Hints:
Structural class: mainly alpha
Helix content: 40-55%
Amino acid sequence: xxxxxxxTAENREFMLDLRNDLLSFGHGFTSPEGxxxxxxxxxxxxxxxxxxxxxxxxxxxxxxxxxxxxxKGSRQLVESALKxxxxxxxxxxxxxxxxxxxxDGKILPDKQCYxxxxxxxxxxxxxxxxxxxxxxxxxxxxxxxxxxFWDEENGLARDTWNTDxxxxxxxxxxxxxxxxxxxxLAAADVLHDEKYRVRAGSIIDHVIKWAEENNWRIxxxxxxxxxxxxxxxxxxxxxxxxxxxxxxxxxxxxxxxTVQYALSAFKDxxxxxxxxxxxxxxxxxxxxxxxxxxxxxxxxxxxxxxDGKPVxxxxxxxxxxxxxxxxxVLYRTVGSDRYAADYAMFMEYLDEKVVDxxxxxxxxxxxxxxxxxxxxxxxxxxxxxxxxxxxxPYNEKIGLSVAPSLDH
Length: 408
């Protein structure tokens, strides 16, 4: 069906309809204090759950893009969320941002690299719409990140501090480094400061090396000496942030970020971009081969072991969103029709299994038979992955971050 084929009028219209539905779905996310509520199945806020920094920042990013796209009400939502980021989620004493605030006003412990990367992303996007305080927020977010999370010696990001920023965890993780790459590329695009693009490249170079040494499956967890811990959480394989084994969705997402970095860092120098494009294809191809329909049903398995055998068979919506993005990016970069065919396959699955045509937004977690479950991701927490998947496939400037691409 042309509805699923990239660059057809029907697919563009389908993407527009999906995006409008998503942006309309999320309007109830802001709390009186500004922190984001976790959204339920029909978009009703779940007020009994913590208001977390990473979700608040993701929604700030989403509705900053909404404002650039002309979606009514977006600016007010951004300004409300920024109030939360500068207010209840900010640690005025020790600096930085709490992981979140519980429903009864208590602080969630620790200072997370993951959350701080999203503060940077939120601030870059909000600055594009000239939201009040966004520029100052971006400066503080980068200064805080530079002080506590960036490890210049290794060219990688540290993961977690205690709440007071006095004790650093021995754990090092690739997930937080991945979102650091996204944040740094956005910061480089918005501030025109190439320091952050160079840092993103340093992280990517490490990940490519580790993946190549591991049959293009990316080790996710490391010790403080950056030695891979391949057995971490073997007894808790479906952990939402530190799952055991390889995560095909991350392999796919890293592939897209690798292409974005290469095209922005080296412009038209094909000899340099080719290395990264080749690596991106290997990451993507391995992840799709391991993850897609690996148990006989459509969908991408959440995790596999180190031989590519599925461990957690559940399908998370974000993995599909990234598959849509990366198949489109590789099609535009490499030109191979097989990536266009993958894109159409992913879009059909999205329409048939993942979009909630009754209540709106996308189902966040399905089991291996594509039935709705909520053991890891109940409800529909935020819109970040889904909205980006309606935009990135048609971003004509692949080397430019998604929000800045809307501002050009």
